[in-house]
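Weekly puzzle thread! Below is a chain. First person to post its structure in token form gets bragging rights.
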Amino acid sequence: MNRRVDRAPAEAPAPRDEAPADGRARAWLDQHLYSALSSLGRLWARRGATALTVLVMGLALALPLLLALLLANLRGLGGAVSDSREVSAFLAAGASPATVAAARAAIEALPDVGAVLVRDPDEGLDELRGMAGFGAALEAIGDNPLPHVLVVSPDTDADAARIGALADAVGQVEGVDFVQYDLAWRQRLDAALALGTRLAWVAGVLLALGALLVVGNTIRLDVAARAEEIAIVQLLGGTDGFVRRPFLYAGAWYGLLAAAVALAGTWAAVWAMGGAVGRLAAAYGSVQSLAGPGLGTQFAVLAAGIVLAWLGAWAAVGRQLAQGRPR
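Winning reply:
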């Protein structure tokens, strides 16, 4: 006798519920938001000590920024590199048009010559009239005493040695009375600016390390004050990331506030010195003004402040976590 056994139909798999994943993401976001706001509240609760720390870090960030800003403005005052490469050949006073044309043709035939521009005496006189302090003197002279000038632009691939040789060759051309070659002083200026840039980097690195140590020591004191709280959280199963998170946000707030203070101090310095720089430039017939940090530089300073302070906080909390969980 065959016995039939009825089997219950297999249950269909339950549809996946995406809610737990969404819940985990929402919980993660809530934890980070709470850590960010609670750390900011702790800084506000001890705002006196916070302000002192932020001012010290802001000063450390402002000094290399001001030095870099000064070097950038000096590069602007130094003139364009293309102008410093030009060789100016002054012809004898009263040179005839034929002499000017012959001298120009001879110079254009020289190697490493890109272009030759002729500036007649009237153009030179108009340029002098536009400079401060020359107007009255030129009116007293009467006749135009300026000679023709041939402005020689070297090839773009010509280096300093080849431009120097070109200046010597231009001086040997018949009809050329005097040669002005400005690349030598520009090279000395560039060397000085390169040294200043290197000093700015060294100062920036040292002061950045100082800012990192300041925020690291501040976070270390905060960690030490909350050592028992951290131990309880670890006993209850809190992960290292959970323990570290509020201190990292505190460090990021320190860095952001310090960078904002550094930028505010930099703009204040630009505003304080801008009038004096403008008057000095006007005395030399220039309209050069003191330029502040650009938008990209400002974002870079804010990011650098946050990263430095975050690293200092990470190192300070890592020392506490390295001691291990309590048993």
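Puzzle host: Confirmed. Bonus trivia for everyone else. Confidence is low (pLDDT under 50) at residues 5-19.
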